[in-house]
Amino acid sequence: RDYTQTYLDLIGVDDFLSTLAAEVPQRLERFNLGRTTIEGRQIWAVKISTDLNGSGKKAVWIECGTHAREFITISTCLATANNLARLYGGTGAAAEKATAMLDLYDWYIVPVHNPDGYDYAYWVSRLWRKNRRQNNGICFGVDLNRNWNSNFGGTGSSGQSCSDTYRGNSALSEPETAALNDAVQTTNTVAFISIHSYSQYILLPWGYQSSKPSDYNTLLRIARSAEAELESYYNTAFLVGTPPDILYVASGGAYDHMKLNNGIKYSFTYELRPGSGSSWGFELPENQIAPTIEETFASLWKFAEEIYADD
Ligand code: 0X9
Ligand code: ZN
């Protein structure tokens, strides 16, 4: 089963990551975020570095699979980890990008932030979004991208446990959000990138309010540069802007939290293929996994170059 041709199930993803760690131990290590999910699973992450014992470099964090049904995001995180670990120092376009990315930063990648939800979406209910908390005996699930401490409880989140945007009892009440928040704080983090689907957007802060951060123009310039790189491969156009301007206001999102509370200046959210008008929605055909991986990886390289030049 090739992760660039097919969507792996949760066991397939876990096997892929342990094999990667076993085969490239000099550059990649797998670890778990230190809390178990409601169904008792671990949340796996990988660190990729030129020197796992301490490179002294700043960290870039990438989070995928927060929303269970967004399968393409998991493929993209797996590809990013695979390319960084295996292609470093090699020849060819992707290898040169991987080398540059690792020479600038340490990379922390969480391919499946919501493993309980992903397993449920994969095997039981393809369009499941939330985690699998049993809220009240009737409805399951907290929307992890409404559970962060970024205007928690505000516009664009729901207090109704049956809603797909149910925010949960309190900010960081869920093991998935609490674990990722703690882990990000243990590293010297320069950038945080949330990967979602779909609509082909690169979203800038803030998602929870219409006013812009003071460094908005810098973030906009960087995101536009990454977008141009992405678009250059297959003419896949992404819209760059804030959620209130191009999508909707949503409080309690991860990337807002990371900038607001953890002081991470460079904080972005992708919405990958397909485009907003597509009838595929969250079910991107498997023959688009490979081009999506290629264009997104290239844009992550551009993000790294631009952030390094600006920071
Ligand atoms: O609604 C979301 O969480 C994201 N869209 S999705 O279709 N993948 O569910 C957008 C999140 C943007 N971030 C914030 N508004 N905080
Ligand atoms: Zn999402």
From TrEMBL:
It comes from the Eukaryota. Residues 3-307 form the Peptidase M14 domain. GO terms for cellular component: extracellular space. The keyword Hydrolase applies. One of its GO terms (molecular function) is metallocarboxypeptidase activity. The keyword Protease applies. This is CPA2. It is an enzyme of class 3 (hydrolase). Belongs to the peptidase M14 family. Its cofactor is Zn(2+). Coiled coil: none annotated. It comes from Mytilus coruscus (Sea mussel). Keywords: Carboxypeptidase, Disulfide bond, Hydrolase, Metal-binding, Metalloprotease, Protease, Signal, Virulence, Zinc, Zymogen. Its EC number is 3.4.17.15. GO terms for biological process: proteolysis. Extracellular metalloprotease that contributes to pathogenicity. The active site is at residue 271.
